[in-house]
Design a protein that fits this description.
With about 525 residues, this protein is mainly α. The protein is built from 24 helices and 2 strands. It has a two-stranded parallel ribbon with strand order 1-2. Helix 21 links the parallel strand 1 and strand 2. Helix 2 packs parallel to helix 6 and helix 4 crosses helix 9. The chain is globular.
C-alpha cells in the first residue's frame, strides 16, 4: 500500500502501526501548538474571573467584591479549574495560559485519535482549526473556550462510539451537563444530540432516567447558585437582560457579528458552513443532530446580538463543524482533491487582514469596527502577549495594571471605593480591599437590574448605567442612603440577598420575590436620560 492510500484509509485499519497519515496529523498538531504559543494572550475580561479566583483562594469566598455574594463570572467550571491550579501556583498569568494550551491540545488531539474516520479527514480538520484566527486566538485568552472545546470533543467521542443503550445516555448527559456548567448557553449545541441518543435507545424510560441523572453537575451547580448567590444565573445575564434594547436592533447587531467574522476571519465561517453540509452528506443520525445543535447555536448568536469579541462565539460551532467534516468517509479522496481543499483553506486564511501565522498587523487596519466589535487579541496583545514576556517585563504591562496597583496601595491606608467601566485587570490588581462599582453592571447586583442610559450609545456587551443618587455613598458607608425611595427599597432586598445570612427566612423571602419579578415595579422601566 502506498503512502497516500495509507493516509486516506480508515483509521481503524491503521491502528498499531505508524503511517504517513500519523506523520501528517502529528505535524499538524505541532503546527497548531506553535501557532497557539505565538499568539498566546489574556483578555481583560478574563481578569474579572481571576479576581474571584484570587478572592476564593485567599479566604474571601466566591465573591468579586468581598462581603458581597455576586457571580461576576459566566463559567463556573472554568473558574473552579483555575482555582485548583492557582491554589498551588499563586500566579495567574502563566497558570491560565499554560492550562488553556494543555486543554486546547487535548481537545484537538482527540480529532485524529478518536473522532475522525480517516487520517485524511483528520488532517483536513486539524488544518481548519490551525488556520482559524478565532480558534487559535481563543485557545488561550484566559476565558472558558479551551475547556468548552475539550468537553465538546469528549462528547463527540462518546456520541459516535458508545452503543445505543440507556447507560450511554448517562455518560453523554454527564459531559453535556459539565459543558453547561462551563458555559450555560452551550447546551444548545448538545440538546439535539442528547435527544437523538435517547430516541435511539430501546428502553426509553430507563434512558430518560439515565439522562436526568447525568445532569447532576448542572443541577448541583444551580442549587448552589441559588443558595449562595440568590439567583440561578450569573450577574452578567441580568446585566444584559434588562437593557430595553429592541430585539430588532440586537438581531441586526448579530448579523454584523457574522459580517465582521467574514471580513477578519473568512475561513472560520466557511468551515462552519462546510461542516453543516457534511452532516447532511454523511446522513449519520447523531451527526445530523450535532449539526442541528450547531445551527441552533448560530441562530442564538444572531438573536443575542453576537459579542464584542470578534470570533469568540464561533470557536465552538467551528469545532463542531470540523468534527462533522472528519466523520465523512474520505478513504476514496484523491491526492488532487485533498491538496485542492488544503489550498482553498490556505487561501481563505491568507485573505484575513492578519493571517493566523502573523501576530502583528498593519496600522492601516482598524482593531475595532464601527459596529463596536473588536479584535480583542490585537487590542491587548502588546501588553499581554506571551511572546513579549521576559525577566525584566511586568506582565501585563498595561495602564490598568498600574492603576490597579496604585489603588491597592491606597487601600492599605483607607477603604477605597472606585467607579469604573473597565473592571478586569484593574480589579484584579487592585485587590480585595478596593470595592469597585461597575457602571457596566457586570459585577454590580443593583445596577444590573436598572435600565441602561439612553443618552449614551450602547455597544454590544457594554451597557452603561447611571448610579442612583446616594448609591456611591451607600457603598462607601455601608448603609442605604439612596435618595429614590423605590430604588432604596429594591436595594435593601438586593443587600439582604447578597450580604444577609444564607439561610435566614427574610433572605429566602427576598430571593423568591426577586426571582419571580415581584419587586420589578420598584425600578424604572425605561432608560435614564
Amino acid at each position: 500500500m502506498n503512502s497516500w492510500n495509507e493516509t486516506s484509509a480508515p483509521i481503524s485499519h491503521q491502528r498499531g502501526r505508524f503511517t504517513a497519515g500519523h506523520a501528517a496529523t502529528a505535524a499538524l498538531l505541532v503546527l497548531f501548538a506553535v501557532l497557539v504559543l505565538r499568539r498566546a494572550w489574556l483578555s481583560d475580561d478574563a481578569y474579572i474571573t481571576f479576581r474571584t479566583v484570587d478572592n476564593f483562594i485567599n479566604g474571601y469566598r466566591l465573591t468579586w467584591n468581598p462581603g458581597e455574594r455576586v457571580q461576576a463570572y459566566t463559567h463556573p467550571l472554568w473558574m473552579m479549574a483555575l482555582s485548583v491550579f492557582y491554589f498551588f501556583t499563586r500566579e495567574i498569568y502563566f497558570t491560565s495560559i499554560f492550562l488553556s494550551i494543555a486543554l486546547s491540545l487535548a481537545a484537538v488531539s482527540l480529532l485524529p485519535a478518536r473522532i475522525a474516520r480517516t487520517r485524511t479527514g483528520a488532517a483536513l480538520g486539524l488544518a481548519a482549526l490551525a488556520l482559524s484566527n478565532a480558534f487559535v486566538d481563543y485557545s488561550t485568552s484566559g476565558l472558558e473556550n479551551p475547556l468548552s472545546h475539550l468537553l465538546l470533543a469528549v462528547f463527540a467521542v462518546l456520541l459516535f462510539s458508545l452503543p445505543r443503550t440507556p447507560r450511554s445516555l448517562l455518560w453523554l448527559s454527564g459531559v453535556a451537563s459539565l459543558a453547561a456548567v462551563n458555559r450555560l448557553d452551550s447546551v444548545l449545541i448538545y440538546a439535539p444530540a442528547l435527544l437523538m441518543a435517547w430516541l435511539e435507545t430501546d428502553d426509553k424510560k430507563k434512558g430518560l432516567l439515565m439522562g436526568i441523572a447525568g445532569q447532576a453537575p448542572l443541577l448541583l451547580w444551580e442549587l448552589f447558585s441559588i443558595v449562595y448567590y440568590g439567583f440561578p444565573f450569573p450577574n452578567t445575564y441580568y446585566a444584559k437582560l434588562y437593557t430595553g434594547i429592541p430585539q430588532a436592533e440586537l438581531t441586526r447587531q448579530g448579523m454584523y457579528y457574522f459580517l465582521n467574522s467574514l471580513e477578519r476571519d473568512p475561513l472560520t465561517l466557511a468551515e462552519i458552513a462546510f461542516g453543516l453540509i457534511a452532516a447532511l452528506l454523511n446522513r449519520e443520525k447523531r451527526g445530523l443532530a450535532l449539526g442541528g445543535g450547531t445551527a441552533l447555536y448560530l441562530l442564538y448568536i444572531v438573536r443575542i446580538g453576537g459579542d464584542f469579541m470578534s470570533g469568540r462565539f464561533f470557536t465552538l460551532p467551528l469545532l463542531s463543524a470540523v468534527i462533522l467534516i472528519s466523520r465523512l468517509d474520505a478513504s476514496n479522496l484523491s491526492k488532487t482533491a485533498f491538496y485542492t481543499l488544503l489550498t482553498g483553506m490556505l487561501l481563505l486564511a491568507r485573505a484575513a487582514p492578519v493571517p493566523v501565522w502573523d501576530v502583528t498587523q498593519s496600522k492601516t487596519i482598524t482593531v475595532m469596527s464601527d459596529t463596536g466589535i473588536v479584535d480583542e487579541r490585537m487590542w491587548y496583545f502588546p501588553d499581554v502577549a506571551l511572546i513579549k514576556t521576559g525577566r525584566h517585563k511586568v506582565t501585563p504591562s498595561s495602564y490598568a495594571h498600574i492603576w490597579g496597583a496604585q489603588a491597592r496601595a491606597d487601600s492599605e491606608v483607607d477603604f477605597v471605593v472606585h467607579t469604573t467601566g473597565v473592571i478586569g485587570m484593574y480589579g484584579y490588581f487592585a485587590g480585595p480591599n478596593v470595592h469597585l462599582i461597575d457602571n457596566m453592571a457586570l459585577a454590580d447586583p443593583l445596577l444590573a437590574r436598572l435600565p441602561v442610559r439612553c443618552d449614551v450609545p450602547w455597544r454590544i456587551g457594554h451597557y452603561e448605567r447611571s448610579l442612583p443618587a446616594g448609591y456611591f455613598s451607600s457603598v462607601y458607608h455601608g448603609n442605604n442612603i439612596i435618595e429614590d425611595e423605590d430604588i432604596a427599597e429594591f436595594y435593601d432586598q438586593i443587600r439582604l440577598i447578597t450580604r444577609g445570612e444564607l439561610f435566614s427566612p427574610a433572605r429566602w423571602q427576598a430571593i423568591w420575590k426577586m426571582n419571580t419579578g415581584q419587586l420589578n415595579d420598584l425600578i424604572p422601566a425605561r432608560c435614564e436620560s
